[in-house]
Design a protein that fits this description.
37% of the residues lie in helices and 22% in strands. By secondary structure, the chain is an alpha+beta fold. Strands 1, 2, 3, 4 and 5 form a five-stranded mixed sheet that branches. The chain has a four-stranded mixed sheet with strand order 6-9-8-7. The radius of gyration is 35 Å and the shape is extended. The N terminus is likely disordered. The chain has three domains: 41 residues, no CATH class; 61 residues, 2,3-Dihydroxybiphenyl 1,2-Dioxygenase, domain 1 (Roll); 58 residues, 2,3-Dihydroxybiphenyl 1,2-Dioxygenase, domain 1 (Roll), CATH 3.10.180.10. The longest helix has 25 residues.
Length: 203
Amino acid sequence: MPFAPAVVRSARAIPQPLRSHCTKRTSQRQPLARKGFWLSRVSGSVERLAKIVAQSPQDLSLLPPNAPHRYTSRMRIEHVALWSHDIERLKHYYERYFGATASLRYENPVKRFQSYFLSFDSGARLELMQHPDLAPRASDPGTKRSGYAHLAVSLGSETLVSEFTERLREAGYPVIDGPRRTGDGYFESVVLDPDGNRIELTV
């Protein structure tokens, strides 16, 4: 190689006593010392890895920033579920006014559980679930409370939002807000289904 003679000349330029000293130091390195060095490096790495694994449920910032991508790249909300004391009444409401298509009623006699899956033209699904031991509502229908807030339905235009809101009002279902334009730019109204669940009608 072109640079080989220059390397040889540089090595020959080192004074003989220093070259002998370096050679002696190198020959005196013990295999055990080298093993100890790498064992300490591996041990330190294992300890750091164990610390990350132990802390990861509490501190997700320790995870690489792109680690969840393989989970989230195809993630979607599959369905939303509602408990009800009368899923037949709710099923009829969403079929009549929102064009939902209901599955066959599922029943589990052992768990005393019944449910329907409602499918909409957009592909969204809503599960209606019933059980005889449901806890009573903590507040009156339509009031704000922690947890589930509302189901938002896009209708495609402001005109349709206004017209559909009036249709539900005339059918006797409460309209508790709007139609109006919100401070962040949405045109919407809020109505209640037969169980008092909020439905946000928007463009």
